[in-house]
Amino acid sequence: MQPITRRLTFLAASLLFALLLVVLIATAPKHPVALIRVVDASGRPLVGAIVLPEGLRTKPGPYASGWYGWRTGQNGVPNPPVTTDKDGYARVPYPKYVFERIETGTLCLSVNHPDFVPDRPERIVATAPPAGAPWRVRLEDLWNRIRHKAFLARPQPVVLQKGAILIVSVRPDPAISRNSLLFAQVSGMASDDTNFWIRPEPGVIVTRRLAAGRHTVRAIQLDSDGCACFSEATPITAVSGQTHELVVALKRGVTVRGQLDGTVPRPVKNGRVVAHVWPRGSNPQDTPPQWHAWAAVHEDGSFAVGSLPEGDLEIVALCDGFVSTNGPGQFQMRYPQKHSLGTNDISITIGMEPTARLEVRVTDDKGHPLKIEDHPLLIPAASGRQSGLERR
Fold it and tell me: Strand, helix or coil at 285?
């Protein structure tokens, strides 16, 4: 082969390779992808597990912060549930940056399978080799991007555990219909998992997915008129693979009626009261069953919050220009006012005090105003994930 022919062949091959490289890079997804593998305790892959991306944490570095919600509108990456394949893998696209140029370091997930205890794990992901990595590592990273059309993070597998079986049944009560929908709250468990409980017959609720260990359980029945009935919060110790039966009695929820004190001039404008009930003597750090409710305040200052369980009541009130006075607490923050709820309705008066108004102007270094919504660092971020029947 003549030298000129060899040079032309080499040039054509080089152009073809460059073109192929450009096409692959141009058609690659804009966002990195994490391969989340879900397995059982023996390492066997689980097919059909549902992986839901819920939040993000920043990568360790000059800036590190807490938990951020998955803001689809801002980071441009949707977070639909993803089902694991026959090998137990789910491909989860995620934003390279939590905000601005602050890299994503950790994915906060919810993982569910109908035969296993649900989990909310966090998995560390990486978006690039560390600074100063050898060229070989960088070339391997580039090849992975081309070959998989995205950077594939391979975090530690999510291991789901077999759970205990819990059967909760309600004692018959002629005053309470057994045909109303029955629910249950379990300490430490989110209540938005519609597959956690099954209802084999009226007045009975069952799960096979209760995590081993100590729990507090409360049954709740909602009548067609919206009224709630509650059982006592009962402690149990669950053992994986064993069946536990709990028979409970239901009592109708009580009502808290009251008024804002005379500090607030009438008519009251835009008034709200918010009530939160804990099982009596419980420790919030144990995430016991809890109940959350709210109601409007009428112009005459009166209110009524119905269908509340027995327990320790915390209540706050707000209206135009006023807030409820500070309740008992140890630190320099505003606390709710506290009362005890039994089996009877109660009437209370909420102490109120005037509020101040704070206006903040944010500018750049040249004095030009900044829009807060364009700068996530100026927006208070959530510090943790919520759970409980009341919000989800």
Answer: helix
